[in-house]
Amino acid sequence: MAKKLVVIDTDCGIDDAQAIIMALAAPDVQVLGVTCVFGNAAVDDVCQNVLRVLSVCEREGIPVFRGSGGPLVRDSMSCTDHFGSDGLGDVIEDKDPRWEEKIQREHAANAMIRLVCENQNQVSLVALGPLTNLALAVRLDPSFPQKLKDLYIMGGNTEGKGNVTLCAEFNFAMDPESAYVVLEEFLCPTYIASWEYACRNALTWEFFEELINQDAPAARFMKTITSKCSAYSKEAMRNKRDVYFGPCFVSYDAYAMAACIDGSVVTESVECPVRVELQGSIARGMMALDRTDTLKKSHSVIVLTKCDVAKFGRLLMESLRQPCKK
């Protein structure tokens, strides 16, 4: 059986690293390339983080492309230090001084377009960060979305619960205009793993301890980069996630990747039009679900609501038993 072709667009923080590792471990997935965008860290740090993840999994042959260093229109919000200033927990000391030589010269948006054009209607695009590269791609080539097989997005929110602002999720809040463009103009099948979806299908901290204490290179890497990060501490100060959903372990980006790898992980979803709010001091960047056809849009997306948590947990656990040769 032919492998599923995947392009990953990422702002590689710790949860992105886990999602990338999950894709690399999937036996029926071929990662054509990884495109980098600002978000959890500056785009140069993101590029280095992706190279590090590929190196840990012994998959350095996968091309990495540098993309946008800021949002489509407005000034960038400050990148948070949720995963440390470098996106991977500020624990990696042996930085590669020649990392830039390993990044492809082609811009991420152009690479996306080329890889999809070379494999029309075969590529699943998995977007794990702000959607700036995707918005640039559709501006450069308006026919780009219709050449995709499908699109999986980790981002947005469905209940008005925000994690960086009162009402908006991080990836959409970092570049609301790009999120708006993508959800208006990408008419391919689109699956959204929202912030609430991830949090409502969370795993336990006991599972997390078992996950990172496996005897394998990828698990040891994940244990290292989470070791000093408060986002991966059960004892950390209560944050918005804990207030809304209770204490739990959530590997956000892995939920979108799992849905792409194995659709049976998703057990319930809602199909409806959505729109990203661009105005206001409170709701800017919030994703609104139109369950009553108020917007009269012709295009709907699939908003994921429930998953098989046991199956998702198995995908996570198995993914950290790397490197595994293909």
TrEMBL record:
Q: Name one GO molecular function term.
A: hydrolase activity, hydrolyzing N-glycosyl compounds
Q: What is this protein called?
A: Putative inosine-uridine preferring nucleoside hydrolase-like
The protein's organism comes out as Scophthalmus maximus
The UniProt family comment states: Belongs to the IUNH family.
The cross-references to Pfam families, in alphabetical order and at most eight, read:
IU_nuc_hydro
Where would I find the Inosine/uridine-preferring nucleoside hydrolase domain in this sequence?
6-312
Record InterPro entries: Inosine/uridine_hydrolase_dom, IUN_hydrolase, Ribo_hydro-like
Give the record's keywords alphabetically: Hydrolase
Say if the entry is tagged with keyword Hydrolase. Answer: yes
> By its UniProt entry, which CDD domains does this protein fall under?
nuc_hydro_CeIAG
